[in-house]
What does this fold into?
Amino acid sequence: MNRSKNLWLSVLKSPTLFVGATLLISSSAVAATEEALPEETISQESAVNPTSTVETLTIEALPEVTSLTQSVLPSDLPLVADASTGDTVELSNSTINNSIISNSTISNSTISNSASDSVTSYGDGETVEDNLMGPVTGVSQLSGQTVEDDSMEQVTNVSQLRDVSPGDWAYEALRSLVERYGCIAGYPNATFRGNRALTRYEFAAGLNSCLNQIERLLGGVTADFITREDLESLQRLVQEFETELATLGARVDNLEGRVAFLEDHQFSTTTKLKGEVIFALADAFGGDADDVQTVFHNRTRLNFVTSFTGKDALLTRLQAGDVPTLFTGAGGELAGTQEGRFTYDGPTGNDVIIDILRYKFPIGDKVTVQLLANRALHHYYADTVNPFFEGRAGGSNAITRFAERNPIYRIGPFGAGAALAIKPIKDVRIDLGYISNTASNPQEGQGLFNGNFSAIAQLVYGSDFKVGFTYIRGYEDNADGRPRLILGGTGTALANLNPGALEDATSLGTVDFDSAKVESNSFGVQTSLRLSPNIVLNGWAGYTDAELIGVGDAEIWNFAAGIAFPDLGKKGNLAGIFGGAAPTLRGLDLDDGNSDFDNDFAYQVSAFYKYKVNNNISVTPGVVWLLNPNQSSDNDDVVIGTLRTTFTF
It folds into this structure.
């Protein structure tokens, strides 16, 4: 880079050095911008077209050119291929020096002061830790954007570049050089960047490519093929576009510095780190909730997403937090209820654990496979058809678990297994999955297929209007002795078939609810309608038919609707109101006929407003109103307030 700039200065002082000096700048000039790089990728297949034999002339001293000035390169300057080698100038794990340094390419906003937040999405509503990452093979992939397969074709006639207006002397001069030396590569559609006039800077980029080609010829055995007329044309073009040519070198200096910085500070060439930290204040009021104290919660997640092929992703998530549920240890009206739980609650003690471990990869263009090794649930891979409320990281959208998605997606328990997402035609998606929390247990009656399990089959259709139909089959033997939560921590104690709640509700001291195995069949219908870019309606209904083997049958219902207002106030903000009936035990048919219990719908309404402070910080105040908590109209209403602050990096 320094060599090129010094030689340019020499040209200004010594005309006899014009040819070699003016051409050397193209060795390191990159026709790329820092702010707006084209989305098309550029291959390495441009061929060198050697010129045919022409009359040779002796190179003589050329007139002196004026000094070059430095100016800022405009944002619309395209990437240009080096026709002398067929290589494109790209950013990756080495400095830019007219060579391909890795197998990654530049996408929009690749070069920034820190790694980009974006990743390739493999499912509606997914957030970073649940998405399949794009290629992460070098610094150039820090944006996480996928690489297109568009390839370059050699352009041997400038008239093929349709957006270069003929008639100007410079056009004719460059046309002649292109035809003689084959030194410009355009995109396959024969344009630089679409159907618009070629700017002076884009023209200079093409000229720079010709300078680069002729420089190579001067240094090799083909130097005798360069004519005096061509050198004079080059001199005149360089004089006309000296400012634009000079900016190419200045921009390369900036890009080299940025690339060197990213190389020194990058986390990994194959792994991308995404983090989220949540701080939250919360309290509850009303009835027995008056005993709840004001609390300060925290949770941290570090997501390591590794790509081996550029299309796959291995996700390893570390988690630590201290977020017990507000009603932990509560008695009376709130005993055992899972209502009003926050999206981020669960971990306690700030112990670091491996929370998620799974591998995702595509098979062809229509199938994505996931292998799940730890703490899997169906909503990690299935489309829940609840955009803007669904927030798989827990700190981005809705404030309660109930508002995130239909609770039947949480039927588990946590486990290991596999899943398929199939997109046979446009706007149709099929989700299939199987998980078991005894998958690693080799004992009799356990293992991947003989212990607890949950399997899902789902069909989703639509785009702006979407509807999904879901079936989930589950089995739980409660052998680990933990409290039974068949709906994954949402709904009333009775809806989760909590043994203590069932005993209190039925007064059947002779029935062993703790040891009862549970088989369940759950059905759900979910829908979403985008009325406008800023108004989205969501809703669902869910039904679970559960059999407590040897005890009786249970019917559990839930339903809800919500409205989301994305970008309310400013881009990135989100307001939402969501309400409905949390999972409620509506019917209990025991073998001895005794099933006297309250079955009022446990209504829940929540509202929140996420305010985006900047790209990395958001603040979300929210309120939750519980009516008929623990499915009894005799119980006092409860109001929960929270203030959630989310940091992402």
Confidence is low (pLDDT under 50) at residues 1-156, 159-164, 187-196. The first strand starts at residue 81 and ends at 82.
